[in-house]
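Could you please consider the sequence and fold appended to this message?
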Amino acid sequence: MRNLIMLIFIVCSGLFAGDMSDVKSLISKHWKTQNEKKWQEFVSTLHSGGTMNGDSNGSFWYRQEATVKAVTKNQVASNRFDFTPRYIEVDILEEGKYAVAYYYLVGTYTINGITKSDYRTRVCQVLVKEGKNWKVKSGDFTPLHSGSGIPD
């Protein structure tokens, strides 16, 4: 009986660890594909039903479709991104279904002619499992003290 309990514990721990690892990998892919402007791959990290977001410019909540057209709206060719997620923490709310990720996003950007090298933002994202893959469903971005958010 004791061995059975240990086996169940090990298997369950591995499932949660797998979910955590998968969520962290998705977050890294999410920002890497934006940095590289690989918009179709970026969209593949979003929930097919779209996302609800609050940006680091203090914007109101807004819904965004999970399409290349939607994520590139108002983008100009000169826009550049170099964002890196740091210190990613993941809470699995329900195994294989829901998770929340907390992390810091740092880097530089040029957006619509505005360049900043002090982008430092606190991020909270809700992720859901869609089929076999984790997807971003919602994100809230808050600039850190003495860091810049994105322009309006």
Remarks:
- The mean pLDDT is 88.
- The longest helix spans residues 2-35.
- Strands lie at 51-54, 62-64, 80-94, 98-111, 114-130, 133-143.
- The first strand starts at residue 51 and ends at 54.
